Amino acid sequence: MSFAAAPPLSGTVRVPGDKSISHRALMLSALAVGTSRITGLLEGEDVLATAAAMRAMGAVIARSPEGLWTVNGVGVGGLLQPEAALDMGNSGTSTRLLMGLVASHPVTATFTGDASLTRRPMARVIDPLMQMGADITAAPGGRLPLMVRGACPAVPIRYRLPVASAQVKSALLLAGLNTPGITHVEEPVPTRDHSERMLKGFGADLTVEVENGVRHIRLHGEAELSPQTIEVPGDPSSAAFPVVAALIVPGSSIRVENVGINPTRSGLYEVLRMMGADLAFADQRVVGGEPVADIVVRHSALTGIEVPPEIAPAMIDEYPVLAIAAAMAAGRTVMRGIEELRVKESDRIAAMVAGLRAIGVAVEELPDGMIVEGRGGDPLPGGATIASLLDHRIAMSFAVAGLASRAPVTIDDMSPVATSFPDFVTLLDRLGAGQGR
Ligand SMILES: O=C(O)C1=C[C@@H](OP(=O)(O)O)[C@@H](O)[C@H](O)C1
Ligand SMILES: C=C(OP(=O)(O)O)C(=O)O
Asked: Which among 54, 109, 175, 412 counts the fewest CB atoms within 10 Å?
């Protein structure tokens, strides 16, 4: 699919539900006793993989024609033995969080996934879950396919996260739900806190204390969760694509409604403002325990900056599209401290460097990041085909680049976009982007 120079983008749109919150809503609803109701759930492949796995372990999950999801949970401790391997598709979040759930239940589950997921490191969850008593066998290097034999009862542990990862933190907290005693996770670098917020919302006994800059999360196990009504806000990681598109296509002015702006997720928007973006959070409110706003953004002359490395966890999935904004900025943008990008759906540093060079942007690859030489608002040369490498964010980032390029940018395979943002192209077209195609 090709993406070409677009006329000014305009209009008001909504992006699909937050992927992180959607996974957690399904998992915690499946562990509550009774019926939970979820609106705004992301109906992307990653979240549907989580739904299928929870069904395979006993939850009854239904969707009404209007998009209301109902989940009848089995109760903490009540997960059933799945009859077949759990196919996690492309989803790291599903895999790591569900490994945690299974680790403290009397079930054995095999996890499989696509070629991208099979390359991703799982030792970061295997190690602490084995400390809790789970028996885990994995392919060499701690990769998929792997089998988790849950421990019942599991042993509560105190664990300091060696890598800033909300997935590892959440896997341990989910394992802690069916573990007697207190599971204590120490988080030296704060990451997205949706699990903590939602666990509390479902009635779990969870406390967070900050001591010397380290977050101490303590969860009392053998929890009883009560069913909830959850409204999932729009995904700030998905909103990033139309927002950057509006910033780089001259004359654009758009509004993205109902986007989650949890501070552990909104780093990109802070960085774009530092670069000179005309971007505002309008009508700020709280929906289902999460801060939400409409993002109002206009085309802006951007300036390159040194992105503060400490902001990385709050925008870890947004660096690919930030690199496109950086390519249009005046001066260089330096991104460091993001070696984690090398173990996402693709090596996102290598993928962005190769793709930017292919569309005529000068970029230097660093072991832990990249330096992008901005073109000061001049259109990008474009005119290349980009391999999306089973990575939705690489596909969407270069699609956005195409909208500000002299010659169209072609994406070899847009299908990965269905994992997180199934109507991405339709939404861009609704803003007017399709007229250039
Ligand atoms: O917990 C989550 O929902 C996620 C955490 C992040 O991964 P890591 O924990 O590996 O950083 C992020 O990249 C991913 O898209 C979703
Ligand atoms: C890294 C991502 O997801 P996951 O880890 O769930 O595959 C992402 O959505 O960018």
From this structure: 412
Residues 87-134: pLDDT tens digits? 999 999 999 999 999 999 999 999 999 999 999 999 999 999 999 999
> Distance between CA atoms of 383 and 126, rounded to whole angstroms?
43
- What residues form DSSP beta bridges with 149? 108, 135
Q: Quick one: which atom of ligand 1 is closest to the CA of 97?
A: 1
Ligand 1 atom 11, closest CA: 165
Answer for the pair 29, 228: CB distance below 8 angstroms, yes or no.
yes
- Does ligand 1 have an atom closer than 6 angstroms to the CB of 166? yes
Cis, peptide link before residue 145, omega less than 30° from 0: yes
Structural domains of the chain in order of their starting residue, each with its CATH number: 2-16+233-436 (3.65.10.10), 19-231 (3.65.10.10)
Q: Answer yes or no: are the C-beta atoms of 105 and 222 closer than 8 Å.
A: no
Which residue bears the tokens 């409409």? 294
Complex ipTM more than 0.95, yes or no: yes
Residue 437 clears pLDDT 70, i.e. is over it: no
pTM above 0.90, yes or no: yes
- Name residue 138's beta-bridge partners: 146
The pLDDT score that the predictor gives to residue 436 is 60
DSSP E strands in 113-262: the ranges are 135-139, 143-149, 158-160, 182-187, 206-211, 214-220, 229-231, 253-260
How many Å apart are CA 81 and CA 91, to the nearest integer? 21
